[in-house]
Amino acid sequence: MKEKLKLFRYYLDRKYNYKFKSRDALEKFQKDKFNEHIKYVIEKSVFYREYYKGYNINNLSSLPCIDKKIMMENFDSLNTVGLNKDECFEVAFKAENSRDFSPMINGNIIGLSSGTSGNRGLFIISEEDKSKWTGTILAKALKESILRKQKVAFFLRANSNLYESVKSNHIKFEFFDLLLPLQEHVKRLNEYKPTFLVAPPSMLILLAKEIEGYKLKISPKIIYSVAEILEDKDKEYLEKVFNKKIHQIYQATEGFLGITCEYGNLHLNEDFVIFEREYIDEKRFYPIITDFERKTQPIIRYKLNDILIEKKEKCPCGSVNTCIEKVEGRSDDIFKFINKKEEEVTIFPDFIRRAIISSSEEIISYQALQESLTDVEIYIEIDEKVDMELIQENIRLSLDLLFEKYHIEKINITFRDTLVFLQGNKLRRISSKVLYIEEKLDMQNVFQ
Q1: Nearest Cα to 200, choosing from 219, 179, 215?
Q2: 2-329 architecture in CATH?
Q3: Fewest CB within a 10 Å sphere: which of 45, 82, 159, 391?
Q4: Tell me, what's the pLDDT at 260?
């Protein structure tokens, strides 16, 4: 009962008190909160206390950054509750294998990241952090009152006590394991009839096809896309089938980072996370995040490899929180080549995406994989009645034109028959195996 009251208090606080009339007011609030938070972190975290020696801890932008590698190497001294990395990994891996996600350590939730950005990481959530997260997600995600009854269907690779905490007297929560067969999900959903559906876009598309085939008969009031990049074409298809606006939640191991407003625009959660920006070009940036409320596993100046595209236009919802046009991908979704002058050239995922989908209106689904400096593999799904060879040739021409703009030549574009996708993992439509290019890299061999 005490926990539920705490959750409800956080819900009310997030719902009604975190409104800012101006950007200046928001930034002052962030600064005050951070100055209060950093004192706690320095006192409780051995890692941060040592890491920030000699720095002015009240000047956030002057502090050194961390990333997943630094966090995992210093896991034991970074967390504030004395947890051991090996023990946490053991509990988390057992949960993954048994699919029983209830075990905790000293009342702390332990979970694994999906590993899409490299080696798998750990996250720790305390009871207090859990109440804050749950109250926040309910305040931001529910478009109706918390007192309205909801049936939540939540599709993810792994369940967690964190997600289970969403349950209340008015909110029923059911976890749907992405590793299970689709037909099991269809049967359960038809019986459950969720009003609130949360799933990766790849799963939403499968469910939409079941609706079109009259096998799935659900009509959720609220739908959220999570975990994967929501492509414009997929969003359009899903909204047509479900006859609902498809909202998005931008969530990572590092925190609850953003959510769409009633107009469908994605806003960063700057009321509890500070986003510094490492700009790549005029509108693209890598976020450096500081969560000034997360105490168990402090996140301060943590560099993400997500590529965010800033939206310059003001959102009609009136929020002063930064509006994001889209989460374009990760740094390892960027294609890298060598041009005629033997210079490194990077092409952002959005340009590859547009080159492919603009080649034909008949393309239902696609995937582009850069296998090497000179090889790109493409998968496309089209209607059986359409000429596959013609569309493939159009894609080759479109990509060749794109590469020519960057003075890149001799790229082999081949087509594969299957989508590269392991059930339970995130679907990545654009991905590159070329993570970096060493100087020269025996370029004479590449351009022979």
Answers
A1: 179
A2: 3-Layer(aba) Sandwich (3.40)
A3: 82
A4: 94
